[in-house]
Amino acid sequence: MKLRIxxxxxxxxxxxxxxxxxxxxxxxxxxxxxxxxxxLFPVKIYQPQVYWRIEGLFFHWLLGMVSMWTWSAGYDIIExxxxxxxxxxxxxLVIANHQSTGDVAILMTTFNAKPNVAPNLMWIMxxxxxxxNFGIASILHQDFFIVSGRERREESLKQLRxxxxxxxxxxxxxxxxxxxxxGLLYKNRESSQKYAKKNNLPILENVALPKVGxxxxxxxxxxxxxxxxxxxxxxxxxxxxxxxNTEISWILDVTIGYPDDKPLTAVNIATGSRPPFETVLFYRxxxxxxxxxxxxxxxxxxxxRWAEKEALLENFYKHGTFLGxxxxxxxxxxxxxxxxxxxxxxxxxxxxxxxxxxxxxYMLSCICVKKSAVSNEEWI
Length: 380
Description:
alpha/beta; eight-stranded mixed β-sheet; about 55% helix; 12 helices; about 375 residues
């Protein structure tokens, strides 16, 4: 009995210490990124390509901090399914099921370990994420915050199209991450099942029916460059100078599986309260050429993928693996993180923060001294 009580106290203390560390970590790594971007603003004006390369590097470092949180808690990641190494530098749309607040951290941890992915990544996430501690980083990185709800759906899709043209294409970003379900599973399951019954669609338990709007907008906007150039030429009656290939080449379908159907949450990551376990990511690769562009056909294609996810997850919850459920039986591989890199990044962010806060304190003290001197002169 005493040992059990002592164990609970130790666990509670670990959660408190870990949470305090994460809060402290957020205090110095996100502001440091923001200050560096402000200092580099002249570079953004005169050499934008150089600026965005540097920004991408810094953003990768931020993902390293998030990766350290999940890794240090013992929440390992296993990859199964198709080999995605060949598409690391290709323009790719990543679509994934969305079960919990931990999904983003899990994907960030995975992308952090892959070269050239994180610096060239664009996230499409719910507008609520803008108001989290990571929101300022996503704003500066020019991720897109989509607004859910029927009332503002069309306007939000117009904004997405504009954002792709103004941010994704000029920055030559590669991967786009999208959660087509438009929200967390426990929030969407009931409405998804009601919609499925009305429209004679599969009744899903492990996933919610995906929404096709954002994916359709992305594929329409990022279609082959030559077809866009031809349209521009006809419209403007002049040759187009755009030569860059902006077409999405691959669709990476990611199925996120948590053991025993218990998703990882942001609270679990912050406190480390859940015992260590393995999250499994199952990959399926589709060339963009096999994906329909017409909205109705694309909707059917996407529904088919989510029906497959339903079966995949049902098998996963029974057997603990996705292997044997796909044409590819590539062996599982564990996502490895670099401890030395984590230490170097912490040293960089802590040192930068110390310099910035010291300079701020010095400037404030100078202002206070000057005000004090002025007050004394007025009194005399």
